Structures are given as structure tokens and as C-alpha cells.
Amino acid sequence: MRSAGSTGRSVITPIFGPALFVLGAIASAACGSSPGAAATATAADAGEPAAGDDAAVADDSAEQADDAGAADAPVELPPPPQPYDRPAYAHLSETGLYADFPSKTFADGLVPFEPTHKLWSDGADKRRWMKLPPGTQIDTSDMDHWVFPVGTKFFKEFSLGGVLLETRLVERYGTGPEDYWFGAFVWSADQTDAVFVMDGQDNINGTNHDAPSQKNCGACHRGDPGRVLGFSAIQLSRLDNPPTLASLAAAGTLSNPPAAGVDFPVPGDDLTARALGYFHANCGHCHNINGTSWPDTQMVLRLEVVERDPQSSELWKSIVGQMLQYFRGGAITLRVAPGQPDTSAIIERMSSRTAKIQMPPLATELVDPDGLQLIRDWITSLAP
User: Fold this and answer.
1) Residues 325, 204: Cα–Cα separation, whole Å
2) pLDDT at 193
3) Maximal CA-CA distance, the chain
């Protein structure tokens, strides 16, 4: 995996929207060619044009020249969206996720993505999409905190066993720090509708899955100034499974892209990188200087792109060998006791689903067995 070096900055022309438009036009032209047209072209290519066909050939040449000129013409995009009124959604069908809701046909312009390090959601399967207004860029002047243009939408769908449970939306509708719409839409048992639930809903359709209230959505997402979690420089720093940081930079989607060949994967050997990535994805949105947990703990569980050495990171220094500050753990006194997972408060809290003890504290009823084992293995690997 590539590591970060110097991060040269240069503002580039927005081409993400035009690039999508051109790719769509090429695909449409290729798929839209009829068999009859192809057969006619083949027959004409195989034979000599008759003398009477000179005018037709001249017309074709002129038409081809016109087409070439049209291809060179710049693509005109709609102007970026201006701030608009706060949405008043009642149903998922109103949000623009689907072109046709009954058939669950997705709308054009959605970009599916996946973060490298996943947030535990009680074992639910998830799909994610983002929709960036054409002709706009993501403000990456602060590479740790991306800010998305007005009109950007992020969708996340949760399901179990192929049955849809809820779909969440984050939408930026204005330029102010609070001009974001958060909300969860819960799917009906017959899968024909998904309704906005302001107060959330527990145990959707008889499962252990809970949809958060609108208030609790904000509690987590306000931990980042850009209000979006999971679509970031660190989460997209990888070589495959686009979009990646490199592919977004190449497409002109980032206002201040990193220098060519530079990205920011979680540092460390495989075990360390997976453990720190787990903290970053599952805990870092609350445990950082902007997060809701900061007043109580001053603990940082979020990485920054400049942190290339695990042991020098604020995450590492916040927990390894550090005394408890807020949580009362009885005989347990350290956040992470190196080499001793059973006397580490982080393991105690990850293992519990008791109110005021469990971590994460919201939107989860089940312990993450794989995540818990990962953190146990990492703590065990640390020299006492």
C-alpha cells in the first residue's frame, strides 16, 4: 500500500460531472446501436460506392465533420445548486434514490462506494451511494475533513438475509454548519414502502436492527465538520475497489488533490492497521476534538492523514497505557493495558451491551465478535 509523502496542492478544473456525462454518452451509443444499422454499415464498407452515390458520400463526410466538431464542443452542465429549503421528507421515494420506486430501479448519477474500514451494525448487510451535483467538487483543502457541495446526498441501505430494513440519508441543503438533513427510513414488512422515522425504531420487522432517531444521527455526524463519515481520504486510500482517493483525484473530483502517487492508508503492520482502522471507523466520529465524547474523555480515536507512525499517533497515545478518565471500571484502571486484554477498559466496554457501559453506545444491540477479537489480538501483541 502506498504511503503519504509530501502533499503538494493544486486547484484543478472540475471535470467529474463532464466525465460521467461522456462515459454515459459512450455507453449509450454503444448499447443503442441497432442490428439493422450495423448491417447497413457493414454492407456499405464491403462494396464500392456507385457513381450516383457521390453526393451521399459528400453528405456523409460533412456529417462526420459536424460530428467531430460536436464531440470537441465543451459539455454544458447545469449550474451548481444554490441553498434550498430544508427537506420535509416523509417517504424514501421522495429523496431521489430511485428512478422508479416500485421496481426499485436506482436513479442515474449514484456512485456506489465502500469504506475500507467498516462500522459495525449488528451484522447487517450494507450498500452505500453518494450523489454529487454535476460540475461540482468536494472541498478537500483540509484533507482530514472533506466538505461537500450543496445538493450532495449520501444513502446507506441496511438489510438482513436480503430483506430491506432501513435506508439512511445525509443531504446538504445549505451552506451553514447545521444545513444538513439526517434521517432513517424504515422499510415495511412487505417491502413496498419506506417511511421516515424521526424518533427512530427498535427491532425493525422482528430483527435486532435499530434505526437511530434523527437527533442521534446528528450526535455522531457532528463529529466531523463535513458531517459525512466513511467517505474520506483515509477510508478511500487503497489500490482497488473504486472509488479510491486516486480515482477521485484523477477525475477532478477533489478541489485540492494529493500529489500523484500519494495516499493515506492506516499505518502499521496488518494487525495494527486493522485495529487502528477499526477504532477510526467505529469510535473516531465521537472520540475526537469535535465529537460528543470530547468533554468527558479528551480521547482521540480518529486518525489524521499526517500520522504515518502508529505509536506516534494521537489515537495510540490516547489509549495505550493511559489511565481511565471518566469510566469507572472497578479493578480495571487502564484504557489499554499492553499485553493484557482482560484488564483493558476498551475490551470491557466493547464486550458489554449494558447501558452506560457498552461501546458504541448507540444503534447497536449485539457485540461485534470479529471486532472484539481483533482488538483483543492487537492488545495481546503489545509489549507489557
Assistant:
1) 36
2) 97
3) 100
Query: Which one, of 251, 217, 249, 252, lies nearest residue 233 by Cα?
Result: 249
pLDDT digits (tens, 9 = 90+) for 24-47: 332 333 333 333 333 333 333 333
> Rounded mean pLDDT of 67-74?
52
Contacts for 272 with CB less than 8 Å, ≥ 6 apart: 310, 378, 381
Q: Rounded to whole angstroms, how far apart are CA atoms 92 and 186?
A: 9
Q: Model-level pTM?
A: 0.80
- Condensed to tens digits (0 to 9), the pLDDT of residues 80-115 reads 899 999 999 999 999 999 999 999 999 999 999 999
